[in-house]
Design a protein that fits this description.
Blueprint (H helix, E strand, L loop, with lengths): L1 H9 L3 H40 L9 H13 L2 E2 H8 L3 H13 L3 E5 L7 E5 L1 H21 L5 H18 L1
Helix pairs in contact: 1-2, 2-6, 4-5
Length: 169
Amino acid sequence: MINQKVPSIARSFPFILKASRMSNNLEQEKEESVSEKIADYIWEIWRASKTASHPVRVGEVTPEQYWILRFLNTAGSQRVKDIASYIGTTPSPVTISVKRLERQNLVKRERNTKDERVVTVHLTKQGKERFETWRLRRRKATSVVFDSLNSNEKKSLLGLLQKVALSIN
């Protein structure tokens, strides 16, 4: 109510407008502080989960190998150049990583019969199983983080996080 009257009153009493602006700034600062704290907590939860479960953290694969396997698990068979584009690099380092993954029997490379330069990569059965093992390990590590919440609190948090995620996209 006061904010609606501020412009007319402010002509006579400029300190009222200044006080109103200061109040709005304090509210905005408090809101930003809360947002920062939320972001910090989300970061800590993510870090704790990754530290406990991520295959890169526990030394099973390199970061690039992980992203290759993750992409293949999600998108299916892909050409080396498409994998490189997805992870933001050139085909050469992807080829090296794929060869190493192939030695571990996690992926299989196949050359195109019409154009030998084109190489398609897909996950092997062992690669799919390994990725599923990582996913389950991550799920377990993450669920432990949320054990302090009851079922209703988890549902509320999920709804709020979905709302935030949808606003990003």
